[in-house]
Amino acid sequence: MLLSRFFLPVLKESPKDAEIISHKLMLRAGMVQQSSSGIYSWLPLGKIVLDKITDICRREMILTGANEILMPTLQSADIWKESGRYEDYGKEMLRIKDRNDRDLLYGPTNEELVTEIFRTHVKSYKELSLNLFHIQWKFRDEVRPRFGVMRGREFLMKDAYSFDVDYESSINSYNIMFISYMQLFKKMGLKAIPMKADTGPIGGDLSHEFIIIADTGESEVYLEKDYFSLEDNLKQVDYNQNLQKYVDKFTSFYAATEEKHDHNDPKIQSLNLVKTRGIEVGHIFHFGQKYSSPMNATVSHNNGENVPVFMGSYGVGLSRLVGAVIEANHDENGIVWPKELAPWDYNIINLKNGNVDCDKTCSDLYNLIKNLNKSVLYDDTNERAGAKLAKADLLGLPFQIIVGPNGVKDKLFDLKNRRSSKIERLSYSELSNFINENR
Ligand code: 5CA
User: pTM for the complete prediction?
Assistant: First the structure.
């Protein structure tokens, strides 16, 4: 991508109304624009990252055997009256009337709608297990939308719903999702921690939040010191095997929020705990027959009896993740993307646009990188060198290749690693070897 052709409305000043660093950086880097309180337009740079996160999540869901569907944002109030949640949900739910005075709502979550789809079509245990997921915008009229896309009113969620004939197989489906969450966050280059959680308005008897560590996170967390070495050992698992032992292994490590646990708790002292902070990026629930009973979603068991189906639901906050990733990966100069989520792998910076040698060298490098199947952003604008370098740090691509008139004379290039800030001076062949090997 040529920067001169890319719509990147970078802000020079730090936005005053943004409270946290990820929100400030997302506005400065032209990733999003607020449209009204807690509601954002996604500009090209933000959209690229949101799509990368969404793709990784989607691919992992498909690996588990889940089926992708797409339910609408607007739902009929009738099914929510059936489940009993229409009144319970309170002011967080955006209620709408159509021209015929029918009650609609903008979905804050989809348990009811997916249960309605299920009960229309599935009648027998032979068709189970089934997991249906979708990726769709949600609306929750949060009392205090804040922190940009991290606590929005409109936000993008991946939500999956499992259906099983009995409790045991339903727990197995829950375990599959639990492990797939560990995998998908790892594939995003993030370290996620599962934590036992309250079930809130979704309900049920079993629930875990997945949080990623960031100093500025909303929840205080105690974490077993060796936890991440355990996570590092998690290879791609076979979702057909019994996953209970993996889940037990992860949950045997003690992670707890401060509110729920006492400092003097002997369990905390007996383990090697580190105090840190985190952001909730996923939440899974097992609620059995909570929706299937009132909504009469039953299947025939192999003993001939009809039973309400056992369900769980599994959410990932895709738009929240964009903010959370930045919250966990930045320095004083800007964003530092994990390589898995970087909008491009390389950033070529032409320090003297218009200089024939610089222009030629940069466009050769640009073609070389593309031919090696790596993605590249080329700053071919006429801005001054200092502003270009600052912008490159703000955008946070993993590697910068800095091309100026002096280096070009000697056929030498500066390769900067954004995370470590280390700069190496390389010849053209050293640079092309580096790009080739750094897959
Ligand atoms: N139906 C269940 C699971 S599918 C559900 O709605 N779970 S949830 O309420 O925990 O939401 C799932 C995830 O969406 C959360 O873990 C969080 O990452 C994200 N999320 C929730 N509220 C917001 C919000 N206001 N802004 C941005 N992301 C949010």
Answer: 0.95
